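Deliverable D5.2: sample structural annotation.
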Amino acid sequence: MNVTVAPRRLHAQVVDALMQAIVGGRLAPGTALPTEVEMSAQFGVSRSVIREALRVLGEKGLIDVRHGSGTRVTTADQWDPLDPAVLGLLHGPGPQAGVLRDLLEARKIVECEVAALAAERAGPEELTALDRALATMAANLDDPPAFVVGDSAFHLTLVRAARNRVLERMAQPMRELLSYAQALTDAVPGVLGRALSEHQAIADAVRRRDPAGARRAMHLHLAHTERDVIALTENASP
């Protein structure tokens, strides 16, 4: 195993290094990790630090720790796809591509229904917030990071307007994916103008109290996002 870590503070840094190797595909599923003694020497930390790092990785579903038979890297279907740290590494080709596809699909299901509920339940305050978010996006078509601020505010407002605490909790861990998708696709020429138009269509449906129209408009927007993210990530270098 060829994984190194800078001499920084302890188990979190070991976790980060191993996560990058696992999610990035450098440690393939089924790979046996070195012993605690070997990893302690490799990372320059105590065995207790290594044990804590392995515990965290096990909770995230990235490794399977079995006493007497060693520790092995798991397959991607065992990872926790809603863990923010895992989400933050889901890019590029490799075993994570399937997880990213699943997340994009799940996001489409959740956010389409959020948009429909927002069309039924949004109050004046949320409608005003949607307009502010659209104005931020429109003013920053040449500034992707600033555009993302408005984009994120728009989606957060819809979740709040849906007034469903369970959906709000379900949407929270997907925000990492939303941020990643926005940062990735918003830098593509022409995408920001299209995204603004699609968000305006969603807002228009919400304002006219049209749940079916809001659902359709969100589905179209997320289908375009899904297509762009998959095309960009699967053509990226590992």
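Annotation notes: Residues 132 and 150 are 8 Å apart (CA to CA). The mean pLDDT is 85.
The annotation will be released with the project's public dataset once the embargo ends.
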